[in-house]
Amino acid sequence: MSQSALARETGVDRSTISQLLTGDGGRLPNAHVVGACAAALGVSADWLLSLSDRPESAARMLAESLTLTDAPRALIDEQIFAWHREAAGYKIRYVPATLPDMLKTDAILNWEYTPQLGRTPAQAINASRDWLDWIRNSSSDYEVAVPMHEMSSFAHGTGYYAGLDAQSRHEQIDRMLTLSRNLYPRLRLYLYDARRLYSAPITVFGPLLAAIYIGRKYLAFRDSARVQTFAAHFDHLVREADVSARALPAWLAELKGTIQ
């Protein structure tokens, strides 16, 4: 947009527009003029006044940095898989809502997803396989942090896992044992004590974005400061983990012995 067109758009003299855009003159135009020009140009007033290096308005920056996205029950829906592809080559940090879906057996997925109103068990199983294939072939490293009580509750068939038969629990622990060995160090799984530490289900896609799973939606952040905050939160879980990725197979083998 030319200075003349901007002057017409805002109803301000062209000389005033020139003063604002070039920084010439003894004083800056008043706030009304700056605001009108910023609105006409679709930029922020701070950027016009050289107070910010971001031309976007505050509303636009907020809209771009924070989004609310649908979250189908199976975690590899089209949107989150796109985020995994976007972050290829970066470390992915992941705190699941239950056990990590990509490590679950078909029997567990069938048991878990049968009551769901969203995806069918077959869709969940296919999604889990797709995710595992992606991890095997991706250039990304994956770190997963799970609360210890989640694993204990699963092994003993209590809480969320009440009614799950012992054979399915045995097979699931065996699968996690196998995958934690075979995929290490590409995939590293840590267990933390939820009595000392807490985390909502989150995924941090390198430096690009962080997504919180809140049930039917993902709350996704793209501004670097918040992404770094979530990454630091996850890294704290790993540093304070009671069971490291290296120690996990032995811990799982011991846990398996308690299944009845």
Describe the structure.
It comes from Primorskyibacter sedentarius. InterPro entries: Cro/C1-type_HTH (IPR001387), Lambda_DNA-bd_dom_sf (IPR010982). Keywords: Membrane, Transmembrane, Transmembrane helix. One of its GO terms (molecular function) is DNA binding. By secondary structure, the protein is α/β, with parallel strands linked by helices. The protein has two domains: 53 residues, Orthogonal Bundle (434 Repressor (Amino-terminal Domain)); 193 residues, Endonuclease, Chain A. It is 48% helix and 13% strand. Helix 7 packs across helix 8. The protein starts with a helix and ends with a helix. The relative contact order is 0.13.
Provide a quick synopsis of the model.
This is Xre family transcriptional regulator. By secondary structure, this protein is α/β, with parallel strands linked by helices.
What is the fold's blueprint, element by element?
Blueprint: H1 3-10, H2 14-22, H3 31-41, H4 45-48, H5 58-65, E1 66-70, H6 78-86, E2 92-95, H7 106-113, H8 121-137, E3 142-147, H9 148-156, H10 166-182, E4 187-192, E5 202-205, E6 209-213, E7 217-221, H11 224-239, H12 248-256
Parallel strand pairs: 2-3, 3-4
Antiparallel strand pairs: 1-7, 2-5, 5-6, 6-7
Helix pairs in contact: 1-2, 1-3, 7-8, 10-12
